[in-house]
Amino acid sequence: MDKKAVYIQARGGVFSQGPAKEFEFGDRYMRAILTFLGVERLINKF
Question: Where are the domains of the chain?
Fold first, then answer.
């Protein structure tokens, strides 16, 4: 079964590039949890 998920995340800064990129845990955490739960297609909105 093809499980899908959409999650919406709000951040208070730019963590997608530059030196702060290493401190971005929200997206990596959600991807890991949803993959563990069997979600195969993930759509994210920031």
Answer: 3-45
